[in-house]
Amino acid sequence: MSVQAPLDYIPLTGAKPRGKRPYFFDDPAVERVLAITMAVAQEVAVLRERLDTVERLLEKHGGLTRAEIDAYEPDQASATERAEWSRMYIARVLRIVQQEIEALNASPDNNYDLDAKADELGRT
Amino acid sequence: MSSWPSPPPYSLVGKHGVSPVTSHDDRARFNFLAQLNTHLATNVVPANARAYELKVKPEFEKEHGRAPRDRHEVRRAMLKNSLFQTWSALRRSSMELRQQNGREVVLRQIADLNQRAAALNADSPKLKLDPKFVVPPYIAKVDFHCMPGGYIDELAADDVSAAANYDVGIFATTAGGLGRLNDGAGHALAGWLKKNAPELKPKRILDLGCGMGHSLLPVAQAFPEAEVIAIDVAAPLLRFAHARAKSLDVNNITFIQANAEQVPEPDGSFDLVFTTMFLHETSNTAIKRIINETHRLLRPGGLCLHLEQPQFEGLPPFEQFMRDWDALYNNEPFWTRMHEMDLEALMEAVGFQREKMFVSGAQAVVDETIFGKQKEDVEDYGRKASWHVFGVRK
Ligand SMILES: C[S@@+](CC[C@H](N)C(=O)[O-])C[C@H]1O[C@@H](n2cnc3c(N)ncnc32)[C@H](O)[C@@H]1O
User: How close is the nearest chain B Cα to the Cα of A96, in Å?
Assistant: First the structure.
């Protein structure tokens, strides 16, 4: 099928691929919220990277244009700082997943029931 | 010594004549996804094995009095585990974001991209499309790795958008693991040939299912005197592949729209026939015909190589289950079916001799000053940039 120009590409970007979409959580609403959250998470990363570029260019030139921002390519040191920021950022967003993994790997003594522990420690 | 971070920034991805123009935000999106996928592979994937050993398997054993027998039983049990659910939902989400981002970049400039491809392709004797070609249903009806429209949908005349989207986003899925031009598998194959078959001075080379030529170009460049034939069923990919190769000054390849089940070339006319990441995207019936074609097309003494992830045979059920993920949840319907086939028996059935078959390993070869080395210990079950080479001499 051919589409007449100009193409309204925006609805096409998010088109559903053929095949039934798998849902992993017991309640599909959870999956939906997660998918939306991850898109927002991505966009926060995009904003942050852009702001970082603005800051670096301002620092260098004292003024800038939008074209300069779009043409900006980080050097090695800046790329490393940005990557570190990203790693921290993703670790921040996915903190709960990390903590669930830690709980899985932890000894029973790390995963104690607070109330039971208070009883136990209260006697000490 | 300072070095680029891993994954490196998207701005280091190589450009060619049909690369779309990316904005700052486009690149930032791919940077985000490369980081996200690296995080998942490094920190979350390994926890699935822990969850299985510590919780899922003991619970199964308690209920059934035995361990899960196969990957299906592992899957039924793991689907109820909340860590697996979370990781899977995140991985699926990341694939969907990658598709949307790639399509945004490409479809926004579709007219310009198609024009650039058309200019590079104009009147070239090295691009042979067949307007009457019938795409086999196993390609026509599947949106592989969740690409809406798959490899063949055309949104405009002489469209290359499906290919451009694939090309612009591989970086995100592989976190740069395939190198600047996403050709790490091709360099691996070229290196493998130099080391393991130095006597082979191929005059004619055939690549089946060449896609956009990512893995093909390094091989064609390694044998500049050779005549290289590359076939694929998808016109958008072939247009893109030809334009990309031309812009990168690789001129010894002829791209032909044809079905690998029935290659329009004479018997015994190739010294080397190879495929990369191809067999897992064809139907079981087609694979048998394709293996038969490789035998027909090779000259006696010629070499046939297939680059793929390892076969499932002999892997523990848990690992098979993890490797099955893309098949079930990322639109790779033939992935597991192919990885369960007995390739050696298939090759034997069409006339190859068992003594002349071999399996060896190959790792992506990338510019390590920029893209770093794949971490040996990170296993991303089917996504890692290292493969098995399934080979046979005729
Ligand atoms: C995952 S891509 C691999 C592309 C390429 N070999 C690479 O390494 O980048 C698989 C390709 O196989 C092609 N394909 C699948 N079945 C085919 C067939 N029967 N004949 C020719 N090409 C086929 C698809 O169109 C797609 O381009």
Answer: 10
Task: For residue range B87-145, list pLDDT tens digits in order.
Answer: 999 999 999 999 999 999 999 999 999 999 999 999 999 999 999 999 999 999 889 99
pLDDT under 70: residue ranges of chain B: 1-2, 369-370, 372-379, 383
Domain count of the fold of chain B: 1
ipTM of the complex: 0.75
* pTM, to two decimals: 0.90
With CA atoms as reference, the chain B residue closest to A18 would be B143
Mutate which of B160, B238, B278, B309 for ligand 1 pocket (most atoms within 8 A of beta carbon): B278
Domain boundaries, position B254: 1-394
Mutate to test the interface with A, among B2, B10, B22, B36 (most CBs of A within 10 A): B36
Residue among B182, B187, B169, B173 nearest B363 (CA): B187
CATH code for position B75: 3.40.50.150
Counting from 1 in the atom list of ligand 1, the atom nearest the Cα of B215 is 8
Name the 3-class secondary structure at A63. Answer: coil
Q: Does B81 touch chain A (CB under 8 A)?
A: no
Q: Hey, of B32, B43, B329, B367, which one would you mutate to test binding to chain A, going by the most A CBs within 10 A of its CB?
A: B32
> How many angstroms separate the CA of residue A123 from the nearest CA in chain B?
32
For the segment B355-387, what is each residue's pLDDT rounded down to a tens digit?
999 998 887 887 776 676 555 556 677 767 778
